[in-house]
Design goal:
single chain, alpha+beta, Peptide Deformylase, 3 helices, 30% helix, 29% strand, globular, binds nickel (II) ion
Length: 178
């Protein structure tokens, strides 16, 4: 397993649509393992392939990882399809490893049903609720080249992206002086 570099917005791969996995091979399983390690290392609760420069429709998530008393609950998802959404919406303050240190409230369906392949290639279908529902929708968005800031008003998005640009510049300057 390896920790992979995470792409930071704006980046063309983050805007690209990922392609379905045709066959769940060892290479796909290795990618999922690397993505999980990268996500835990960051740390984050979800990561989509686009964010590590790969355009396969795969994502990993673990919404239990943040709480010290909770066991890790890694979920590996291949070729996800949303097969149902609740009318009820919920709003969470979202962030993204590709948009570091920026956060904003995003409203999404509170419950979603997702059909996907697991790492053995077996078809699965299950409900995601609460934080997991937000997380899985955020990650599926990534596979379609959509970032959480794309759900915001132009004004708010431009403000966050400007702050991000400033942060990256500051980090680069700090790097130069190190
Ligand atoms: Ni993200």
């Amino acid at each position: 397993m390896a920790v992979l570099p995470i792409l930071i917005a704006p980046h063309p791969t983050l805007k690209a649509k990922a392609k379905p996995v045709k066959e769940v091979t060892d290479a796909v399983r290795a990618l999922l393992d690397d993505m999980l390690e990268t996500m835990y290392d960051a740390p984050g609760i979800g990561l989509a392939a686009n964010q590590v420069g790969s355009l396969y429709r795969v994502l990993v998530m673990d919404c239990g990882a943040r709480e010290d008393d909770e066991q890790p609950r890694p979920i590996k998802i291949i070729n996800p399809q949303i097969t149902g959404v609740s009318e009820e919406l919920s709003s969470y303050e979202e962030g993204c490893l590709s948009i570091p240190e920026q956060f904003a409230d995003v409203e999404r369906p509170a419950v979603v049903r997702i059909k996907y392949l697991d790492e053995t290639g077996k078809a699965q279908e299950r409900l995601f609720e609460g934080l997991e529902a937000t997380c899985v929708q955020h990650e599926i968005d990534h596979l379609d080249g959509i970032l959480f800031v794309d759900h915001l008003s132009n004004l708010k998005r431009n403000m966050l992206m400007k702050k991000l640009k400033k942060l990256i510049k500051e980090r680069e300057e700090e790097g130069d002086h190190a």
